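Field reference: sequence -> structure
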Amino acid sequence: MPTEPMPWEPRWPRVAALVICVLAALTLLWPLLTGQILFGGGRSDMFIAGYSFRLFGADAFRATGAIPQWNPYLFGGLPYIGAMHGDIFYPTAWLRWIMPVDLAITWGMALHFVLAGWLTYGFTRALRLSWSAAITAGVAYELTGIVASQMSPGHDGKLFVSALTPLAFWLLLKAIRGGQRWLFGAFSFVVALLVLGHFQMCYFLLLALGMWAIYLAVADPERPQGQNPWATLALAGVAVVLGVGITALQGMPFLQYVPFSPRATGGPNTGWDWVNAFAFPPEEIFTTLLPQFNGVLDHYWGRNPLKFHTEYLGVIPLVLACCGVGDRGQRRLTYTLLAGAVIFLLFSAAGHTPFYRIWFEFMPMMKKMRAVGMVFFLVAFPLAILAGFGFDRILRGEISVRRLLLVTGAFGLFALLGVAGVLQSVAETMAIPQRMEQVIANAAPLRAGAARLLLFVVLAGGTLWAIGVGKVRGAAAAALLLAVMSADLWSIDRQFYQFSPRAAELFRDDPVTTALRQVKPPFRVFDAAGSYPASTLMAYRIPVAEGYHGNELQAYDQLAGKERGFASLQTPALLDLLALRFLILPESRPIPGWHQVAAAEHNTFGNPAVLYEQDSTPAYARIFAAAAKVPADQVIPTLLNPRFPYTHVLLYPDTVSFTTQPLSPPLPITSLRATVREWSPGSMRIGIEGRDSLPTHLLVSENWYPDWAATVDGIPVRTFQADGSLISLTLPPGARDVVLRFESAGYRLGKLISLTSALLALGLGAVAFLLQRRALH
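Structure field:
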């Protein structure tokens, strides 16, 4: 064993580290250089929805110079900012204003992929690891499964937070241990980026950063002498508050929206069972070493409905992490990192362990968050850092060959159990009965995966032995270790990468979309056959009655019968009231009251699609002379009752503040007619024709939300929710012109809070910097 440290590093260490992180990324991303994009195929979130959301936002900004506030293309309309539509205010959105949207999305993710490794390298260098150890930690985190496999499914927000995690830890290290308190101002802006990147991931990360700040201020042996830990923690808390305040332009509309969403208290997207969906079940701990144990992609048989990512950690990072714990020079720090990894491993399991219940009951917003398995990045990150410590210990000769062989031998034994079929038997005992068929079908991939693992255990053991006994040293040691580690991680990560042609090809026109794009809005389409996946028609600016979002208006979900497969959309009442002018079916058939417009045997997405149009165009705005109030929970059942005269009576919940006139036959009918004269997302002008001596009610086939503002002949009037989910307002006699605009009060206030918080964060950094300079002089 060598007795002297090997502090080799290249001439330009940061540049060399960046080059290596770029090369590590290119092992997976090289098809981008051929002009392809990374939308992950037909099942990825980016393909079925994310691209449409971002394209709409970019086009709207380029056309108007403002962020759109209302999305009319899905589910009858929903707030664009409040309901969340991806990285609206994250800096990657700026790329979409100047670049083709598909390229901006792909290269934005690629940039963060590289940053994940390079920033980890920088953080570990600040922890005084050698260059070789630091770049090992950087590449281990960059290529770790939970980071690398987020790209192809299009989970860009998760990747953004994962990439900036080491920067956040690094800034706190410099601000607290290094005494550079002006960096708390910079930390505020990083917190803002984290929140804007992915709110839920950031929520978990802030818990980890709080633990890190407490360690640095209270328990770190290297904390500055005489530093008041409580004042330091207070500064860190102020920085977090200011960082969150910077994001108020997104946060305020979101908080305003929650009570109207499926995540409202008592809504379908809340509760213990919902929160525990897409957690990390304890039995999947084996996948951190052998992903095929629970099955990869289509072979997955675990308790979650599906899984498009992996938590694979790699053989060398795990072996090195085992060696890194208890580092003589920074023992307390390594144990803290290990404790953090264990805590967030338990956290990622959610309700599968008792640990999570206290968080669920007492932490704010926890009842509205699911897919807690995403927190596994806070397991992978500290283990990557520990791997760096472990490599330094090997280079310093502190780890015996016996210990190395014991650790790698244990992993090799695990791999042999897989090759021998023992792990298949274990899997069959763990699987839920409904998945037994998938478990059996996964037998061959599991055995092949175990053989792959055995190969890399042998390579890892040989590499670490050669470095540990001094047969390979310096640059050769770093290069050999990085090569074997990268090959191991790449061999798993590559299965999660599916490249695509450019968006112009993916979303090219077909006969159906060509016909629909020629129709002047407003109108709405019901894709009854799902010929166009999820929200893809939004990319064509075609408004649909359903779609894929996950946080649409709860009232509309109830009106349309989402839990019953949108069955209510097929009723005569909703076909009419929601202005469902077009219908898409998989084959031609005679439909009374409809005529065929276009057909595609194989549309852009490879599905049959036949477009029908109603013989008489349904009104997008209509006027009622009669209105009635019923209990809120009876509005939709009454409306869908075939005997109810929905064309003559407007239904309000009994919670509205105005009084309706008693109804008796014959029902009053008005001669007034409403015509939509101007329409754009979040804005419309409606003309009223005819005269009526009594007040009437206007109904618009767009979802109501409190931020809809209306004027009648220039006079502001209040809007109401009617017929379950739609916009309504009262028309005085003689009304001629109605203007509706969506103007978010939360967004307006949020922009003011954001600006104020940003200025205060700058002030925090500037004042601390000046005080520090004065103290030095």
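Note: Residues 29 and 666 are 70 Å apart (CA to CA).
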